[in-house]
Amino acid sequence: MEIPGAPAHDGPEVGSDPPAANRRRPAMTTAPKLTESIAARLRNEILVGTYKAGERLPAERDLASRLGVNRGSVREALKQLEQMGLVVIRHGDGATVRHLHDASIEIVRHLLIVNGVVNRRLLEQVLDVHEMLVAGAAHLAVERGSPEDHQRARELLRKLIEPGVSNAERAALFDALVDVITEASGNLVVRLVRNVIRPALAERMLEVQRRLASDAQGFDVRIREIDAAIEAGDAPATAAAVRSLVRERRERMLRALDALESERALDAARVPDAATGSA
Questions:
Q1: Backbone region of residue 186 per phi and psi (left: phi > 0; alpha: psi in -120 to 50; beta: other values)
Q2: Which domain holds residue 27?
Q3: Which parts of the chain sit beneath pLDDT 50?
Q4: Which of 67, 86, 103 is the last residue in one of the domains?
Q5: CB neighbours (10 Å) of residue 199?
Q6: What is the pLDDT of residue 205?
Q7: Structurally, how many domains does the chain consist of?
Q8: What is residue 12's predicted lDDT score, i.e. its pLDDT?
Q9: How many CA atoms lie within 13 A of 6 on its CB side?
Q10: Comparing C-alpha atoms, which of 208, 236, 28 is closest to residue 141?
């Protein structure tokens, strides 16, 4: 299968004059996209088990031939996979697939949804980390955050339980609250881990959050507990209340996800039936 936009040679021509160099600029801007496309395809083949841990990937020349691209683009794509911890490249021995346990945390967001299917077990593990992250950040935010940080968090908390707030608005407010908490924690590592988890959850869970009950029933008690704990400067109480809120949201979100996946499975099953009936 060829990847559109592949250049016909392995590199730029030597000795080209400035006008020719200028004419090649559009092709140069597409090279990173081509490399990312190749890396994404090989990454997905590794994740679905086409290539297993300890197995060598085909040689650059063979991959280039199969994908209809040049070897230079394949080489750069393999380097991206190595940066993710998915392969190890040894001179003269090619690229060997590593065990997923040795991969970079960046790979989590690619593992979470493969070929449109949510990995439920991994999702629960990501939500476990999210719960620990937000609760721990809340503890630090109360201890280290400024009065302005605390005020911003309390304003968002109050908006979360205002009547008439839509599902989408509540999801955005909660996301903004977590941003304020992680920033106020003063911990760079917390913020970096948040940067990895956030896109991992965003693709499918944002849609799920919008499907949650539009009222704040069950959340308002926790939100008021968090607000009171922040006002009192009680870091442990804030962390405990935040953990409870995140856990309750987690359970609702998983139930909504199950309902969404069931609907999609039914819709997918109806398509062949409709085709058969129309025949």
A1: left
A2: 18-103
A3: 1-18, 20-30, 214-215, 279
A4: 103
A5: 12
A6: 65
A7: 2
A8: 44
A9: 20
A10: 236
